[in-house]
Amino acid sequence: MEAIRSMERSIKAVLFDMDNTLFDFLEAKLTACKRMVEHLGGGDPEDMLGYFLRGTPGFEDLENIRDYLLDNELYSQEDYEVCCRIYETIKLEALVLYPGVKQTLEILKEQRISLALVTDAHSNNAMKRLERMQIKEYFDIIVTNDMTGAKKPDHKVFYFALDLLDICPQQALFVGDSPGRDIEPARIIGMVTAYAAYGDRRHYSDNVEADIVLSGITEVLDIVLENKKIEENVK
């Protein structure tokens, strides 16, 4: 909190990453992988999940399922189509909000803080997840990959959201679970940063250059409410 105090900034908006910041998307994908290997007669769901984590062809690309089936000599068009249906259905059904998400969003709205969602997901996928979690209405703007034509850590994504909010980077707090894709670019352009360590199961590091490391999402409220208190005292 001392770091935030010393900045003497007025936080007008909080921008959130979505997957693994608001809910455990990695666990939902693993659950979907478990169902797929069960359908196939057995296998290691972690192995199938690994295909989605490769980076290419993409975190959500169904070609990952095709590659897994081909590499394990399990491919048939029927099984591929069934696995795709299982994946799309279960990954959505298995989503669970992290503790305190709705409470945090509600209090921020009560404090008249603008809220934005900034995600690399396609708008179709993002809306399905937000509606499933019943949190879509909390966000003033939702920025997706197909809107910006870019993905984090490209600064274009962050500036796109800031322009829609009509604020400068110094007036925004960014909350995300990825040190490289969320925290570093947000920090470089001048935003206050909060590292959602609770959601970063793959790359957690004690050396992330963030203004605050979160053990739970409700700690965002500490930053914003303390900032408002300081701002009121200055006035």
SSE diagram, text form:
Layout: H1 2-7, E1 13-16, H2 25-39, H3 45-52, H4 63-71, H5 77-93, H6 101-110, E2 114-118, H7 123-133, E3 141-143, H8 145-148, H9 155-165, E4 172-176, H10 179-188, E5 192-196, E6 212-214, H11 219-234
Parallel strand pairs: 1-2, 1-4, 2-3, 4-5, 5-6
Helix pairs in contact: 2-3, 2-5, 3-4
What do you see in this structure?
The protein is α/β, with parallel strands linked by helices. 50% of the residues lie in helices and 11% in strands. It has 11 helices and 6 strands. The longest helix is centred in the middle third of the chain and has 17 residues, at 77-93. The two termini are 20 Å apart.
Rg, please? 19 Å
Task: Bin the strand percentage.
Answer: 5-15%
Described by its quaternary structure, the protein is single chain
Q: Fraction of residues in helices?
A: 40-55%
State the low-pLDDT regions, or none: none
Count the strands?
6
Find the structural class using helix and strand composition.
alpha/beta
Estimate the mean pLDDT confidence: 93
- Count helical runs: 11
Report the major sheet.
6 strands, parallel
Task: Give the neighbour order of strands across the main sheet.
Answer: 3-2-1-4-5-6
Instruction: Categorize the overall geometry.
Output: elongated
Secondary-structure element series: HEHHHHHEHEHHEHEEH
Terminal CA distance: 20 Å
